[in-house]
Write the structure tokens for this entry.
Amino acid sequence: MEFDDDEQAGVLAYEELLDNQCPGCGGQLDETTDPDVDWHAHEPTRCFKCDARLQGQEPYMKVNEHTGQPLTPRVSALLWEVTRK
């Protein structure tokens, strides 16, 4: 499959956008690293879906009180599904 000039330009522009993206906030680095731009952090909003996932993860995050080793190995490899009740 070949891309026409417009499609190719779109893909290249998207790659440039990703290359300029801050890994922390997702903003564009040419803006987020500009010392002349002021930023304000607002009060947080709780995502109740994320909250439910974190609550479900808590039992798996426990460690052995004697060894300090996790009771569930490689917790980061577990996949978490969260659904509406």
